[in-house]
Amino acid sequence: MTLHLSDIQQDALTEIFNIGAGQAADGLSRIVGETITLSVPRLSILRNVKAKTLNEFISSPRISAVSQDFTGSINAKAFLVFPEDKTKEIVRRMLGDSASADELREMEQEALCEIGNIILNSCMSSLSEALQADFQCSVPAYHLGLTDDILSAHDACDNNSIMFFMINFSMPGSKIEGYLVFLLTLPALNALLKQVDQFLSGIA
Amino acid sequence: MTTSPIKSVLVVDDSRVARMLLRNMILSIHPHWIITEVASGKEAIECANVETPNYIVMDYNMPDLTGIEASEQILQHAPQTIIVLFTANIQANTRAQAESLGIGFVGKPITEASVKQALAFFASRS
After folding, report:
1. What is the CATH number of the domain that holds A108?
2. A25, A120, A153, B17 — which has fewest CB within 10 A?
3. Residue of chain B nearest A17, judged by CA positions
4. pLDDT one-digit tens code per residue, B41-55
């Protein structure tokens, strides 16, 4: 079931996360030493869905994900999701060619957590700044497995809402897709939309 | 309120919210300026050919053309147009593309300070 957002609410949230993603890409490009190409973002809000519905959005059934809990004005669990087969390439670019295969394996989780930390915090900072909402965030946690298992393990889908923000981060020579998934309780989602409305009333 | 000459500004952004913010903030500083809004690079090229605005505020990441591609085409036909790339894509490479094209660069978010930065660029080139 897709929760109805007005066009302007949808536009506002997409623009806010787009700014966060742009800031995140700047941070990432400094880390990997290459320009990151960003796609035009897409945002959907789904309610009362099974996690497997997300497979319509995420092309790979097995994913690597980094999650962080955000608490404060709005409570949310945020995931940065990559198709599993792409993560080694991301880490290799982050650590450079000098790293051995063993080092890459050892560092993979830590490197992805750092990337997740940058991207998720950039998006939440953008949200915080635009909506004047304060958040505290947990340390990033790493997950590897099936999309269903990872998202369902966090009492995620059945009673909660999923805000799904899709943007592709491409690096030269390899198409690496990253997805952002935000899990919110229904009251948290309503609180978020209320703050979006306040933001919009300020500029109308 | 200022008494600066009336200028026309084309605001190019696929986000309606971004266009609203830019329009409102520019008009709060220059209430008599004429603002036109379009949502894509292609529309911007068409509009710039017809209306020849003094200034253009251009997003980068849009569905058809990037802001750089649209700016290149606009400047081919109207090299006197003063353009600022106003974007969330704040990477060094994007700044360098803007610089090589001779257009301004301002990073989002759209705030009073960042809009004033764009207006200062326009004033410096006028």
Report:
1. 3.40.1550.10
2. A153
3. B88
4. 999 999 999 999 999
